[in-house]
Amino acid sequence: MRRKIYHPLADWLIKQFLRVLKKKIIKIRIVRKLRDPYTQCKVLGLCVKKDKSQEIYIYIEIQQKLSEKVLTAIHELGHATWWYASETEIRKFESLMWRYSSTKMKLKFLEALRKKTRLGRQPK
Ligand SMILES: [Zn+2]
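Above: the input record for the complex with zinc ion. Below: its predicted structure, written as tokens.
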């Protein structure tokens, strides 16, 4: 039997994300046919900081498998946390988190996503 390895730091990070979602510091919206408001390109996820309120919204395309939505949410939370990190760095972060977080924590995160996400409109 192959044991799954996980790193406590990955679980700790997801725990922090859960707190951020619970306190509504970052809000998540699910959108159909999500597009980048600047380029008009179709995207799977977006992280937007509102100019006036400084609120952070994460948008997730609805047409993805459950596991893909979780991955997209982790990716966008990475952007929100490390605003100036490059796309490549955030992709690395996303795959590291996926590999090293425990199944238990992934399920907890999925549960939080279910509770905290609302259907939303296309960002402008
Ligand atoms: Zn990205």
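Notes for the reader.
DSSP finds four helices and four strands in the chain.
The pocket of zinc ion is lined by residues 75, 79, 87, 90 (CB under 6 Å).
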